[in-house]
């Protein structure tokens, strides 16, 4: 999987086993928004999980969005329990780098977050994003309800039409339920990385193509508010 070979996901049998408890602590609060990372969260907030390449730049896209209450980054979609960054980068955990977004649906809709997701990266690149190559950089949406899944699928179909019209390829984004795929928070130095390091690396860049406003489209109406209560822990 490494040293110039084409990236590929490990099987459960090939994946690193991990550990029962994390080897590090996650900071208590968001350095920009000031709110708790892992909870507790106020009633009525919802959770969305997005993988769109290096999570440093991806997280900043979401914390800058009005209606987002907190964000933090981690690893999801793989097999290894409580993985480290080095293990994820080895390609032997199966995880993607993911941003968890805790948001107020009365101020920003899930559909609006989907629009930001699609426009902030190139979802046609498979196991890479720009110059970043590896299974951890794949495009993914992990959903927390049937309504989120329906909205994500509808928005994918809509954005594929936009990409087709511009001569781009097929979207490779995985849309999968979050419930059986634990979200493991990343090390503290990754959290709000670009706030702590304003000149740090940001590998996020979209195609330059926009998705229609969700309020004007069928896919937007597939994403109602009141999707799911946010749990008190990450």
From TrEMBL:
Catalytic activity, EC: 1.8.4.11
Matching Pfam families: PMSR
Annotated Peptide methionine sulphoxide reductase MsrA domain residues: 49-202
UniProt GO molecular function: peptide-methionine (S)-S-oxide reductase activity
Residues at the catalytic site: 54
SUPFAM superfamilies documented for this protein: Peptide methionine sulfoxide reductase (SSF55068)
InterPro entries named in the record: Met_Sox_Rdtase_MsrA_dom, Met_Sox_Rdtase_MsrA_sf, MsrA_MetSO_reductase
Known catalytic reactions: L-methionyl-[protein] + [thioredoxin]-disulfide + H2O = L-methionyl-(S)-S-oxide-[protein] + [thioredoxin]-dithiol; [thioredoxin]-disulfide + L-methionine + H2O = L-methionine (S)-S-oxide + [thioredoxin]-dithiol
UniProt keyword list: Oxidoreductase
Keyword Oxidoreductase in annotation: yes
Function statement: Has an important function as a repair enzyme for proteins that have been inactivated by oxidation. Catalyzes the reversible oxidation-reduction of methionine sulfoxide in proteins to methionine.
Matching NCBIfam families: msrA
Family: Belongs to the MsrA Met sulfoxide reductase family.
Protein name (Swiss-Prot/TrEMBL): Peptide methionine sulfoxide reductase MsrA
């Amino acid at each position: 999987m490494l040293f110039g070979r084409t990236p590929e996901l490990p099987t459960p049998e090939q994946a690193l086993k991990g550990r029962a408890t994390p080897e590090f602590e996650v900071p208590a609060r968001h350095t920009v928004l000031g709110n708790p990372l892992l909870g507790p969260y106020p009633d009525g907030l919802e959770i969305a999980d997005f993988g769109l390449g290096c999570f440093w730049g991806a997280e900043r896209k979401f914390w800058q969005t009005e209606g987002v209450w907190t964000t933090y980054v981690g690893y999801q979609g793989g097999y290894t329990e409580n993985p480290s960054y080095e293990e994820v980068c080895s390609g032997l955990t199966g995880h993607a780098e993911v941003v968890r977004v805790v948001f107020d649906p009365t101020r920003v809709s899930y559909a609006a977050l989907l629009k930001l997701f699609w426009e902030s990266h190139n979802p046609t690149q498979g196991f890479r994003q720009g110059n970043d190559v590896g299974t951890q950089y794949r495009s993914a949406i992990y959903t927390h309800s049937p309504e989120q899944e329906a909205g994500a699928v509808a928005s994918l179909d809509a954005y594929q039409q936009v990409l087709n019209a511009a001569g781009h390829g097929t979207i490779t984004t995985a849309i999968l339920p979050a419930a059986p795929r634990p979200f493991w928070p990343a090390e503290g130095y990754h959290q709000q990385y670009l706030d702590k390091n304003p000149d740090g690396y940001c590998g996020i860049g979209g195609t330059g193509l926009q998705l229609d406003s969700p309020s004007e489209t069928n896919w937007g109406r597939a994403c109602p508010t009141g999707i799911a209560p946010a749990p008190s822990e990450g």
